[in-house]
C-alpha cells in the first residue's frame, strides 16, 4: 500500500500546528494555553502516566457542558491564533468571546460553520469546514484557502488578525462520520478538501475508534500538503489510520512518495476491498469528477458514497451583479415575499434567491449550492423543485422550508422573506 513519507520536520518532536506558539500571531490566553497543553500531551508516548493525549482530551470533554447541538446558533467567536498550514492556507483558531471556557455549541466531525463579513459595503456569507475535533470543546478551527478571486477568502487571509471578532453561525452540513455509520471509512480528499477529513480523523483517533481509517490525499506539491506534520503524528499514534498520499507536481522537490494524480490503480492498492467500504470524498470540482468516475467504474454503490465539493463555481453576490439583471420581461410564476410585501414574476430558470436579490429582499446565503442551509426560508404556499436539498432535514421538509438558492417555482408561490 502507498504510504506517506515522513514530511520534512516530522522527525522527533513535531511542531504543534494547532497550538499557540512563538511563530504565531498573538499570545496565548487561558483557553489557548489549555489547547497548548493538550498539544504537548500529543508529543508524549501513548501511555505516559501524566501526559497521555487521549486521556487528557477525554477528561477535558467530560468537564464540558453538553448543550443541544443546533444549526440555529449564531454569535461571535474570537480569533485566538492563526497558523499558516501551506501557501495560501491558514487555520484560524476560534474561541468563545465571553469568559465561558467552552464553545456555545457542539458539532459533528465533518460539519462547517457559516461566517459573515462586511466587505465593500456588502454583507457576504461563506461556509468553511471545521478542521478541529468535536472533542476539543474549548475552541474550533476553520482552515481557509485564499482564492485569487474569492472576496471573502482574500479578506480573511489578508485582513483578519488575532483578537478580532468573527460573526459565525451553525454548525451545519451532513458530510459527517462518527464511527457508528460503518465499521471502516475511506477519507478521500484533494487540496483544501482535507479539512473536514482532518476533523473526522482527529475525532476517531481521540475516541480510540477500532475501525480502519483509510486517509487518501492528493495535492500539487509537497509544500501544498496541508496538515502534513499532524497527519504523520496521527498515523504514528493510531495503528488503524492508514495514510496514502500522491503529489501531482513533485518535480524539483525531494518528495519520495507516490507521484501523479489519483488513479484507479492507486486507490485499489491503497484500499483493499474499496468497493465494499464507506467512502467520503471532498475536493475541487475537477478532482471530484475524476474520483466519481473511478469509483463508479469500480462498482461503489451510491449509498456508500458521500461527497462535498470545495471551490464550486457560484454566481457572484448581488453586490457584484447590480448591472446584470435580466433584460427580457419575466414571464414565469408569481413569487410573493410576504415579509417584505413584494411580489414579482420570476425569469425562466431563475431561483427564488436570485429573484430576491433583484428585489433587495435580503435573504442571507453562503454556498449557493444547497449544502450550507443559510438561505432556508419557509414557503407558505405553492410548490418548487430543488436540484440539491442536502441542507434540509425531515422536519424542514415537513414544515415547508425550502432552500432559496435551489428553489425554482412550479407555479405561484409565497415565502416568508
SSE blueprint:
Blueprint: H1 30-42, H2 53-63, E1 73-86, E2 89-96, E3 112-119, E4 122-129, E5 140-145, H3 151-159, E6 165-172, E7 184-190, H4 194-206, E8 212-219, H5 228-237, E9 241-247, E10 258-259, H6 264-270, E11 278-283, H7 285-297, E12 305-309, E13 334-337, E14 342-345, H8 352-358, E15 376-381, E16 384-385, H9 394-398, E17 401-403, E18 408-409, E19 413-415
Parallel strand pairs: 7-8, 7-11, 8-9, 9-10, 11-12, 13-19
Antiparallel strand pairs: 1-2, 1-6, 2-5, 3-4, 3-6, 13-14, 15-17, 15-19, 16-18
CATH architecture of the largest domain: Beta Barrel
Question: What's the name of the CATH homologous superfamily of the largest domain?
Answer: Translation factors
* Domains (count): 3
Beta-strand portion reads 25-35%
The CATH topology assignment of the largest domain is Elongation Factor Tu (Ef-tu), domain 3
From the spread of the alpha carbons, the general shape counts as globular
Q: What's the story with the biggest beta sheet?
A: 6 strands, antiparallel
Spatial arrangement of strands, main beta sheet? 4-3-6-1-2-5
Mean pLDDT: 81
Tell me the radius of gyration.
22 Å
Helical stretch count?
9
SSE class:
alpha/beta
The ordered H/E elements are HHEEEEEHEEHEHEEHEHEEEHEEHEEE
Helical fraction equals 10-25%
Q: Please provide the count of β strands.
A: 19
CATH class of the largest domain: Mainly Beta
Task: Point out poorly predicted stretches.
Answer: 1-53, 64-68, 312-324
Terminal-residue CA separation: 54 Å
Features:
417 residues; alpha/beta; Elongation Factor Tu (Ef-tu), domain 3; Rossmann fold; Ubiquitin-like (UB roll); 3 domains; six-stranded antiparallel sheet; six-stranded parallel sheet
